[in-house]
Amino acid sequence: MPFYLEIIICICLLIGGIFLLIGSYGLARLPDIYMRLHAPTKASTLGITGVLVASMVYQSHLKGAFSVQELLITLFLLITAPVAANMIAKTALHYRTKALDRTHGQELMETIRDRESPKPPSES
């Protein structure tokens, strides 16, 4: 394997590992669910992306052709992680999970809880 590919793979693995470590630390240390949503959805998504890009470069070199599997996994994670975080936040709002006093946007939580569902165009 050429030295430049080893360097690219190592850099991607290091960046991915750092983001995964930051995401794990944030998940363990942040105090409430609304703050905890940011760590796994942002940092961990970038971390997994770094690891999968390194795997994609390695597998592409081994096969001699572009490796599509890692790219598809990365795209799936980039699409599903924000959707999952949104569903977790909606569930926390629905169950009226209390946020800490220092959590920003507390006034928006009541507005979101009390809003009505949009009416279909035929009922307007």
TrEMBL record:
<keyword id="KW-1133">Transmembrane helix</keyword>
<keyword id="KW-0472">Membrane</keyword>
<feature type="transmembrane region" description="Helical">
    <location>
        <begin position="39"/>
        <end position="59"/>
    </location>
</feature>
<feature type="transmembrane region" description="Helical">
    <location>
        <begin position="71"/>
        <end position="89"/>
    </location>
</feature>
<protein>
    <submittedName>
        <fullName>Na+/H+ antiporter subunit G</fullName>
    </submittedName>
</protein>
<keyword id="KW-0812">Transmembrane</keyword>
<dbReference type="InterPro" id="IPR005133">
    <property type="entry name" value="PhaG_MnhG_YufB"/>
</dbReference>
<feature type="transmembrane region" description="Helical">
    <location>
        <begin position="6"/>
        <end position="27"/>
    </location>
</feature>
<dbReference type="Pfam" id="PF03334">
    <property type="entry name" value="PhaG_MnhG_YufB"/>
</dbReference>
